[in-house]
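question for whoever is on the cluster today: can someone run the full assembly for these? two chains, 321 residues total. i dont have access anymore since they changed the login thing
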Amino acid sequence: MPEQLWFTEILNRLFGTAVTGLLERLGIHPHYPQAPIPNSLGMEVLVCLFLLIVFLIVRASLSVDRPGALQHTFEGVVGFIEGQSHEIIGPHSEGHTPFLVSLALFILFCNLIGLIPGFESPTALPVVPLGCAIVAFMYYHAQGFKHAGLKYLAHFAGPMPALAPLMVPIELISHLARVLSLTIRLYANMFAGDMVTLVFFSLVPLGVPIFFLGLHLGVSFLQTYIFVLLTTVYLAGAVAEEH
Amino acid sequence: MPENPETGQPKKSVLVQLANYSELAFIFPAATVVGWLVGTALDRWLHTTWLYLAGLIVGIIAGFVALIRLVTSSDSKT
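^ ran it for u. tokens below:
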């Protein structure tokens, strides 16, 4: 049996048999049929539940006359991302704000959850950043097709039709490299943050690890910002008027 | 938004530039690895032994193209 966090253990007890049955039906054989849900998925589920509850609380307490602290915080987050996307994408960028805010909050809380004892950052494993990067990749291409229709494909052929056979593989690899670049950046930073904290905690258990926890906190915010910003930059490229 | 007096284009904020420049370190190796992976996958699919090398070369070229494009776009908008 793998080492499980307490929340993952609860999930495995409740849904383990059902998940194993579903995976078996799909032809996937989990390494541990008694505990098919890994810690990373457990932490992702926890972050989603937490965000859902927070969103419901904010939605229920929205007030124009007397906005609460939570409402102010969320208005600040949405306003910041909206301003940023307006600066990069230009007019009509408001439609992308819900996606970008959801992505930002999910990644941020996945990064921050590792700071709480008894939990771990799911983004310190490569599969979770890869999932986020694939979602971002699919979203910006979907928006590109929505914006320009099939003409969006001309964007991959380059400016000269004669060079298209050469440009198409180059462009395809450039776009796929973005997924890998987003994944490695987030994963490596969060993994390194965890490792540094762990190493210093094993060397000097008192005092010193706090500095590294502070560093982890800063890196969590910075990496979330960079991930969302680069997604916005890619989105701006996909919905640019010149296509 | 403040404009660059030389180009007349809007200036990017420091944080946007920071994110753009952080991409410089990753895009070239990422494109190279993706090219190699695509070539290896094609080799397995088509039972050939040389497509990994072609994929690697295309990946390196794609990395250079993306790198140069990123640097020139960052230069023109700062």
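summary bc i know u wont read the tokens: Helices of chain A lie at 6-25, 39-60, 69-89, 97-112, 127-148, 164-203, 208-238. The mean pLDDT of chain A is 89.
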